[in-house]
Amino acid sequence: MHTAMRLRNVIVSLSSAAAALLLSFSLVAQIPLAQTPPMGWNSWNHFADKVTDADVRASADQMVSTGMRDAGYVYVNVDDTWQGERDSSGVIHSNGRFPNMKALGDYLHSKGLKFGIYSSPGMKTCGGYAGSFGHEAQDAKTYAEWGVDFLKYDLCSFADQMAAERKAHPDDPQVATQLMITAYRKMGEALRSTGRPIFYSLCQYGLGEPWKWGPSVGAQMWRTTDDINDTWARMALIGLSQADLAPYAGPGHWNDPDMLEVGNGGMKPEEYQGHMTLWALLAAPLLAGNDLTKMSESDKAILLNREVIAIDQDKLGKQATRLYQQGDMSVWSKPLSNGSVAVGLFTSSWQSRDIPIDLALLGFAHGAQVRDVWKGQELGTKAGNFVGHVPSHGTMLLVLSR
Length: 402
Hints:
alpha/beta; TIM Barrel; Immunoglobulin-like; 2 domains; 6-stranded antiparallel beta sheet; 13 helices; 18 strands; disordered N terminus
């Protein structure tokens, strides 16, 4: 008997309320995760190893009150240093700064948000706390019981095991990568076995080209680079290095150039605007990392720009490619589901630049309607070469349509 027929016969035998509940679970199980890049907030970039339960709850409150939740920022991710000790049965417990993880998850869910957590395939996390090595299934079960919706799985001390494997097999350059893939697959299978849809984020700094194998271990996103920091130089280096990875991004599987630094104070507003522009064009996860209780109006305007978010979240799921680079100038394009094209103009110069675009190269040989997204202005119909004036360390974000 076919699976669908067996399920229908079971449902008929149940009460109507129980049947409805079973059907809802069945539908949830069939809905794939991450049809668009995840959006939310992560504790690390601002709070680092000092984060507390109170910080996370305050951030969640701000996500609701500022409109971030309604704009799509729904994941609230607790990064490293929440872990306490394992009990005699090996079950992980949180430390004193997080007195009750189940209660924290319930609080976030009550706000219409989702609960994210952090661990490592190694013995220790980056902060020296308990990792999940040897406890993968046990930890996944605990996370599911706490109501966790997102796991960031950070390579950290597992790199030591990879190095040892490399040393033991010097003639096999792939042995360490295979060891890492096996470790990430083990947690992916453990998460799946819980029956709870838990978003799986690989944090391994692009080692071993995870964009090629991430989906096979159950992941929905994977880091493509080493860590970002709150400087324009680092942000630009990371973001502008993603040009070759576009074929690996799409609904259900996303390249991750690391979290947003908008609002942390190390860049000028126009540089943060460029940061948000580039991440949106790259169809990157939008995980804010600032102190949400102290956001400036400029920070809010950048993080909450609905047109920019729509480009990142476009259902076509295409990552931008670099149209061309000329010296310190580059032009990137991202096709959108409605037939329009989002275009980003960037310069790394300390001076402003006039950056030309041949509209025919973007599929608009007969001209296009041009909209300046950040200014919220229609620039009219343009044909041939369009020239955008881009300020120092700045960007221009356009949408071209027929």
